[in-house]
Amino acid sequence: MYIAHKKGENTLQTVSEHLHNVARLATGFAAPLGAEECAFCCGILHDLGKYSEAFRHRILDNGPRVDHSTAGAQTLCDEMKNGLARLMAYCIAGHHSGLPDGGTASDTAAAPTLMGRLKKAVPDYSDGLQELSIPPVLPKNPPPLSVVNGGFTMAFFTRMLYSCLVDADFLDTEAFMADRPPQREMGEPLPDLWQKLSQHLQTFYPPKNPLNQKRCGILDDCQRAAEEAPGLFSLTVPTGGGKTLSSLAFALKHAIKHGLQRVVYVIPYTSIIEQTAQVFRDILGDENVLEHHSNVCFRQEEEDEVTAAELASENWDAPVVITTNVQFFESLFSNRSSRCRKLHNIARSVIIFDEAQMLPRDYLLPCVGAITELCVNCGCTAVLCTATQPALDPFFPASCRPREICQNTDALYQFFRRTQLLSIGERTDAQLAAELTETPQVLCIVNSRVQAQTLYQLLPPEGRFHLSTLLYPSHRKRILKAIRNRLKDGLSCRVVSTSLIEAGVDVDFPLVYRSEAGLDSDIQAAGRCNREGKRPLEESLVKLFIPEERYRKHLPSALRTPLEVARLVAARQEDLASPQAIHDYFSQLFYLQRPMLDRKEILPSFERGARNLLFPFAQIAAEFHLIESPTQTVLIPLEEEAAQLSEDLQLGFFSRERLRKAGLYSVNIYQNQFRALWDSGRLEQLTEGLYLLNDLDCYSEEMGLTANVEAGDALFA
After folding, report:
1. Which residues in 75-102 are b (16+ Cβ under 10 Å) and which e?
2. Residue numbers of the domain that contains 267
3. Is 562 in contact with 520 (CB distance < 8 Å)?
4. CA dihedral of 615, 621, 626, 632, whole degrees rounded to 10
5. Strand residue runs (E) in 371-440
6. Within 13 Å, how many C-alpha atoms sit on residue 462's CB side?
7. Which of 37, 143, 263, 318 could share a disulfide with 312, CB 3.0–4.6 Å?
8. Domain-located, residue 339
9. Does residue 596 fall inside a structural domain?
10. Rounded to whole angstroms, how far apart are CA atoms 536 and 543?
């Protein structure tokens, strides 16, 4: 008898049991892809190498590790000898170690590539071939793929098939070890969620004023569009139009109409995620909303019982999932089993890309390619949802162009227009501070953390606030609460912030200053002015200023081109906030940045491998990082929970949950800033990339992290 897994001394799972269990689960997972036969074959063959005396020795006698993944890949390619076999071979060979690079025909057996693995000598597994009757399980039909982008389509399908296999493998292994069925679902059926949302939406009808009439009109448009065939949509709704609930109404109703399985919200910032998740939980119930990003912890301690939410977070098996751009797209381009296992659960989903203008510029073309594959070959519906719709249409194939849900976007813009953008020329810090002091409630957004701190110090102490990423997230959350309370109570409230406040942060100022930036940033800043629409348009100004030269010359290159394009658009567009100006801006920006929209040449890399289906999965995974700043993370142990976390980590008690929590109390700093603190002995290393601030005098309640070094106070940019 050949053994796949052992629990304790006497509880055994045979290889045959495990392979058939995995094949059955994987087949179900692959149904939305039309790849049931491929998934079944991968499941049956993935652990074929466990039919060996070497592996039996490994299991029963704690013998040395044995390569049990290569045998199935070799058998598949020997038996089928076609391209489909090679795609499945990637999945089988990499189901533990990750999808390998294809390599070249000249690779030796020692190479970690697929071509190398296919030449590798492995222990005899012939007994498995006889027990499983391999030829009858081989796929007879290829999957029904529409090849949109050649090699990219093939590679994307391979990664989705890989997801079906590795999640099935994880689930069956977990079920055996825990002695329970492999059931992971959390939450209620989508029709039940629609009933809850529908009851909530009924409170908006009949609308009692013109504002609510417009919001209800947008909601009605979304519900009508939900009846349309699945595919790619856009939802262009100005700030204040209620796009969060309207997009949820579209998503749930559309999913029920077309038999889709879940709703996935993809949001750029954790601050927006937390707001959106709370809104959805209040309406749909906690058990139906999975919030999956770096600031979420599902267990308090290692020994706590594993919850449905924690289990679902690993493979997104929940009715409503809310995640980040980083988590979503990096998973789609990953090669690791732990990150890829969730991908098959994205198939046949409604995916809402909130703040679509925030799609990563350097990776825009690969991200558009992924969205296209999800819509064309994975049965998804995607919605590009934003108040400032970028000109993305030309990047999608003709067969997959966005359909606008709200038809009369110009009229919506005119109705919801709440501010005026006004260019006021150059301002020194002293001039800015004087103007800000004249207004009791005002927000000033700048491009530099140095300038934010400098301006803050020039303001009157009463009611002044400073916001930047030099404050850890939990601290920023407290400050934002204080800001909202002072605004509500009519008290003086002068805020100097970096751009972190722009996207989705719910604050409402009568006047906003914005250091010159890209037009999309200007519009986002305008969303913090007269947000509730209670002030006259002519009194609600967003003043765009040019900062001092010392700040301009240090402006990152990634911000220079958007700024220059915004100046060009301002010269030819009378109304900078109009839909026409926004379209003009993005069209010009994408034209100038076209060579940089796939900076790592992700798409060409897959196309170069298309002829022989030799794809650089591992290489691309290593290169695809949406956030690529060379920073170090510093834990600030000021609050009680942060202090306890620091003690635990110092003692070596590391866990995913503790590290996630540490992010709530941490600041990311650049190398020169890190060096100043490290060289002066103010940091202690906890683990790779994570350091503890041991001199709390370097952290100020008002200013955040500074470095008091021998040369004097250094304010970080």
Report:
1. bbbebbeeebbbbbbbbbbbbeebbbbb
2. 190-293+311-409
3. yes
4. -150
5. 381-386, 403-404, 420-426
6. 5
7. 318
8. yes
9. no
10. 16
CATH assignment at residue 111: 1.10.3210.30
CA gap 254, 268 in Å, rounded: 23
What is residue 614's predicted lDDT score, i.e. its pLDDT? 96
Q: Is residue 117 part of a domain?
A: yes
Which residue spans within 365-430 are E strands per DSSP? 381-386, 403-404, 420-426
pLDDT for 299 equals 34
Q: Which helix (H) or strand (E) holds 602?
A: helix 602-608
Whether residue 142 is found in the same domain as residue 123: yes
Q: Copy the structure tokens of residue 294.
A: 């770096």
The first and second tokens of residue 572, run together, are: 């030819």
Cβ(298)–Cβ(241) under 8 Å?
no
Quote the pTM value: 0.86
Identity (one letter) of the amino acid at 553?
A: K
Report the first-to-last Cα separation within the chain, whole angstroms: 64
Which of 360, 391, 409 is the last residue in one of the domains?
409
Residue 565 sits in the same domain as residue 709: no
CA 634 to CA 668: how far, in whole Å? 6
CA distance 44 to 21: 9
pLDDT value, residue 595: 84
- Using the 3D structure, point to which of 559, 576, 593 is the last residue of a domain: 576
In whole angstroms, how large is the CA radius of gyration of the chain? 27
Question: What are the tokens at 94?
Answer: 């990499």
| Contact indicator for 645, 684 with CB cutoff of 8 Å | no
Residues 168, 170, 175, 181, Cα dihedral to 10°: -30
| Class of residue 559 by CB neighbours under 10 A (exposed 0-12, middle 13-18, buried 19+) | middle
Is the Cβ–Cβ distance between 717 and 707 less than 8 Å? no
Residue 552: both structure tokens together: 């301009």
Do 423 and 396 belong together in one domain?
A: no
Helices and strands, counts by H and E, the chain: 30, 23
Sign of CA dihedral 572, 576, 580, 582: positive
| Any domain includes 625 | no
Cα 593 to the center of its chain, rounded Å: 23
Identify the CA nearest to 71 among candidates 41, 48, 97, 94. Answer: 48
Q: Which residue has the higher pLDDT, 338 or 223?
A: 223
Q: Which residue has the tokens 């909601």?
A: 219
Are residues 456 and 526 located together in one domain of the fold?
yes
Tokens of 80: 């089928």
Token representation of residue 529: 């002015």
Whether 515 and 395 have beta carbons less than 8 Å apart is answered as: no
Helices 151-178 and 36-45 sit at what angle, rounded to 10 degrees? Answer: 50
Reading the block at residue 625, the tokens are: 């990082």
Supply the pLDDT for residue 382: 98
Asked whether residue 399 falls in the same domain as residue 423, the answer is no
Tell me which residue of 510, 484, 513 sits closest to 496, measured CA to CA: 513
Same domain, 18 and 140: yes
DSSP secondary structure letter of residue 294: T
pLDDT at 673: 86
- Cα separation of 303 and 609, whole Å? 46
Identify whether residues 155 and 209 lie together within a single domain: no
Instruction: Please tell me the distance from the alpha carbon of residue 118 to that of residue 212, in angstroms, as a whole number.
Output: 64
CA atoms of 148 and 535, how far apart (whole Å) = 49
Over residues 308-317, the pLDDT tens digits come to 434 444 668 7
Same domain? 88 vs 141: yes
Query: Are the beta carbons of 550 and 464 closer than 8 angstroms?
Result: no
- pLDDT for 199: 95
pLDDT at 548 exceeding the cut of 80: yes
Higher-confidence residue of 578 and 717: namely 578
Nearest of 533, 477, 479, 527 to residue 507 by alpha carbon: 527
Look at the chain and report how many structural domains it folds into.
4
Structural tokens at position 337: 């089993």
CATH number of 472's domain:
3.40.50.300
